[in-house]
Amino acid sequence: VAIARALAVEPEILLMDEPFAALDAQLRTILQDELLALTQTTRTTTLFITHSLEEAIVLGDRVLVMSARPGRIIAERRPPFPRPRTGDIRTTAEFTALKSELWDLLRSEVRTEAVPA
């Protein structure tokens, strides 16, 4: 409902900070697909913050990986999936490879953060 309300005013940019974080996996997937369809129809630029790699890859044209502290961008990746797209990309080899690459970036960041200075 909040997403529909936000889109009703036809914003140039839609800012979303973990809107699906509290949802179960099934509902999250459904709403991700709905958001894809809505933003592809309205062509609204969306800044989407998430801790979910899958969500970032499915929804994003650009995925920015941030460091823990201080928060800075350590990598940028562009998912190789053309628009219009659906959540079906989750089953592709390219999706799996990109998710693995992003995990590796995050793992190295966590290790760096965990090592005392």
UniProtKB/TrEMBL annotation:
Organism superkingdom: Bacteria
Gene Ontology MF annotations: ATP binding
Lineage: Bacteria, Bacillati, Actinomycetota, Actinomycetes, Kitasatosporales
Keyword ATP-binding attributed: yes
Keywords, comma-separated and alphabetical: ATP-binding, Nucleotide-binding, Transport
Protein name, UniProt field: ABC transporter ATP-binding protein
InterPro entries membership: ABC_transporter_ATP-bind, P-loop_NTPase
